[in-house]
Amino acid sequence: MATRVSHNAYGKHRVRISKVRRPRQAPPNAERHELVEVAVDVELQGDFEAAFTHGDNRQVIATDTCKNTLYVLAKDHPIDSVESFGRAVAEHFLGRYAHVEQVDVRLVEQVWDRLAGSDHSFVAAQKMTPTAAVTHRRGESPAVVGGLERLTIAKTTESGFVDFHRDEFRTLADTTDRILATEMTAAWRYSAAEADYAAARESIVAALLERFTDHYSHSVQETLYLMAGAALAACADIGQITLTMPNKHHLLANLAPFDRENENEVFVVTDEPFGYITATVDRE
Ligand SMILES: O=c1[nH]c(=O)c2[nH]c(=O)[nH]c2[nH]1
């Protein structure tokens, strides 16, 4: 039977790296550390087909080598943003290996917050996680996507869901006052590779949060679209944003058997099943 490889890629995933930055300062704060942690996926495409089809490994840069490379690059790079570190990783593999055609780097940051003003103790932030993805094809400029995971937000009113499609399978009642809660994932695409990633992230997150609260929501769908528009308006460097907003349901608990009226106060919080709503919004 004739077969052919129509796509291949390989690399190392979840290379977790932490780095202690020791910015030089005058005493007494000479040892005020910063802790940065990132998990990196790196994938290579290029002239690797013979390894799949002929057991010929001569072109294969071992995934172990990929991992080692990430530690070396972490030493040489300040890791001042996940986007810029991702770009450095992609540039390294393209620059070093002529048979690599495309590098895909995905990065997820673990944010460490300073603990009680200490110079060297930190507490892991449970909240929002910065992410980045860099795709760099030889001869092209890198495509840089910034993003975030686990932005968990809720509003206790100013949200409803009515007039949705009626048929014999519908049981959900209209509501004009409900809890809207989500654990958002966002990914924004930079129009040009060069940008102030940290400033962009700050203005995008601020715009997303402000828009979440500033309107009456007719649905997660509508709120998602408004938030995406606010992010595009707030940051001229991005041309597209994808938001994913699972609907973390808070269902009114039935207290009637216990002779109590539930005046929109007590809810059953369910993880599964959950509504899943996503859209990509482009600047026109
Ligand atoms: O905002 C919502 N969008 C939906 O599509 C949906 N579906 C549902 O059951 N509840 C909700 N809420």
TrEMBL record:
A Gene Ontology BP annotation from the UniProt entry: urate catabolic process
Reaction catalysed by this enzyme: urate + O2 + H2O = 5-hydroxyisourate + H2O2
Its source organism is Posidoniimonas corsicana
> What EC numbers are recorded for this enzyme?
1.7.3.3
Binding-site list for urate: 63-64, 161, 178, 220-221, 247
Q: TM segments?
A: none
GO terms for molecular function, please? urate oxidase activity
Q: Which InterPro entries match?
A: Uricase
Similarity annotation: Belongs to the uricase family.
Active site: residue positions: 12 (charge relay system), 63 (charge relay system), 249 (charge relay system)
Q: Name the residues that bind O2.
A: 63, 247
Record keywords, A-Z: Oxidoreductase, Purine metabolism
Question: What is the name of this protein?
Answer: Uricase
- Residues given in the record as 5-hydroxyisourate binding sites: 63-64, 161, 178, 220-221, 247
